[in-house]
Specification:
Layout (H helix, E strand, L loop, with lengths): L1 H29 L4 E3 L3 E7 L2 E14 L5 H6 L1 H14 L3 E2 L2 E5 L1 H16 L4 E11 L9
Antiparallel strand pairs: 1-3, 2-3, 3-6, 4-5
Helix pairs in contact: 3-4
């Protein structure tokens, strides 16, 4: 008899618990980091005016705490375009390294471009999450 009552009460208990579980899942889903991840970009490595290699770079723009994340994520193509244009105009070549870029030059350039696109104090910092060379390049022949 007790077993029948427990089995009958089980669906009622699970229905009562499901709104609490759903509320926890929604709260976890709404927490979004304050950043914009750019799609990987191919940046040229140019030595002595000669294209030697490409480096595929993944970049994260860290936003200020009060920034509207969804608005700036929608602007991701503009940030990426600014990075591609800057890399094509003045390549971020790191000395004689053919499989890396100069992160300091790239982040400085992207911070300037991001301030023009988003306005001042929106983008807090730029982080390079990965650099992958297109191929292992040999030094150009003289």
């Amino acid at each position: 008899m007790l077993r029948r009552r427990l089995l009958a009460a089980l669906p009622i208990l699970s229905l009562a618990a499901s709104p609490a579980v759903a509320a926890e899942e929604k709260a976890g889903a709404k927490q979004v980091g304050q950043y914009v991840d750019l799609q990987p970009v191919a940046l040229p490595v140019v030595i002595d005016g000669q294209l030697v290699n490409y480096v595929f770079v993944s970049v994260r723009l860290n936003l200020a705490s009060g920034a509207d994340t969804s608005r700036w994520r929608a602007m991701e193509p503009y940030f990426r375009d600014a990075l591609v244009r800057a890399g094509a105009t003045t390549p971020f070549t790191l000395g004689r390294e053919y499989d890396k870029i100069d992160i300091a030059k790239m982040t400085t350039s992207l911070m300037k471009s991001a301030a023009q696109i988003a306005g001042p104090n929106v983008v807090r910092s730029v982080t390079v999450t990965s650099q992958v060379p297109s191929r292992r390049a040999r030094p150009p022949q003289a």
